[in-house]
Amino acid sequence: MRVLILLLALLTGLPAVAQPIAEQPGFDAFVERMEREHGFNPERLRALFDGVEIREDIIATIKRPAESLPWYRYRPIFLTEERIHAGAEFWEEHRETLAQAQAEYGVDPAVVAGIIGVETYYGRHKGDDPLLESLGTLGFAYPPRADFFRGELEEFLLMAREEQLDPAEVTGSYAGAMGRPQFIASSFRAFAVDFDGDGRRDLWNSWPDTIGSVARYIADHGWEAGEPLLHRLPEDTEAPLEELAEEGLKPSLTVNELRERGLALEGLAGDRKAAVVRLEQEEGHDHWLAFGNFYAITRYNHSELYAMAVHQLGEAIREEVDG
User: Name one Pfam family in it (predicted).
Assistant: First the structure.
């Protein structure tokens, strides 16, 4: 019925009928569970969603993520002179905090700077979608990932209560990510830190909290200080690279096992585990061995394109800083 209404609206030029989130299937059960498991007042929770409606533009956007682009089109979005220069300024301004985060968590400042640069262009693009709208829309009107986003809506309401935030006032990305590092609510609750010691975890206004939280997130997802990220593979290799890349991003084969599969790998420890990453260029593909630290970056966004953009942006920033 909903699809028919929208189709008729498009054909007739009439505006689509408003669809309150509070009237969607599953909303009542959600409210009951929030009361039963977390002690939320059901009347106040329903009142919070009064006037909050399904956003069809959010559903359309999530169906075409940037990570669906080929590498040669994805990379130029983030590897620009302007963003690299902004990253160098960010590094210089927050050099001491980046060093403190590295001392605490072991994470390379270039990775932290790269992530914040890719995520929000150093706080310039934090998103202005009300999270009640984005998470409510995706949690109750986007079946492919409704369970995930309904869980994030639960985490968001818990986070807002814990952090003493008005959930109706919190904005972020169309997919529910928040603040300068674009943490989703479950990541905020699990990994955000009060790195400036003011008693609050503020990822909207505090650069120390943002830097420390990103570093902790990557550290808690397996980063090992001093270990490599990548090893470029020669173009003329005869190994079955496409087949190896299909085995996933998680390093699962040792260098010795990859040698047995036909890769000529010199100067690498035979027991180090790696995965093969394949990136589409305008002509052909680039191939890399990706180690555990690269995989740790993909836990922030489960895409080899994302992790490579973070890495290359961070290294370009480091080069400008070191000048």
Answer: SLT_2
Q: How far is CA 288 from CA 69, 241, 254, 262, in A?
A: 19, 9, 14, 14
Confirm whether 119 is a catalytic residue. Answer: yes
CA end-to-end span of the chain, whole Å?
Answer: 61
Specify whether 185 is located in the same domain as 132: yes
Please indicate, yes or no, whether residues 41 and 155 belong to a single structural domain of this protein: yes
**Count of structural domains within the chain:** 2
User: Tens of pLDDT along 272-318?
Assistant: 999 999 999 999 999 999 999 999 999 999 999 999 999 999 999 99
Identify whether the C-beta of residue 277 lies closer than 8 Å to the C-beta of residue 305: no
Across the beta sheet with 253-254, the strand order is 230-232, 285-290, 273-280, 253-254
The first and second tokens of residue 293, run together, are 């630290």
In the predicted structure, residue 224 carries a pLDDT above the cut 50: yes
Q: State the DSSP H helix or E strand holding residue 10, giving kind and residue range, or none if neither.
A: helix 2-12
Residues 170 and 257 in one domain: no
Nearest to 209 by CA among 181, 171, 231, 228: 181
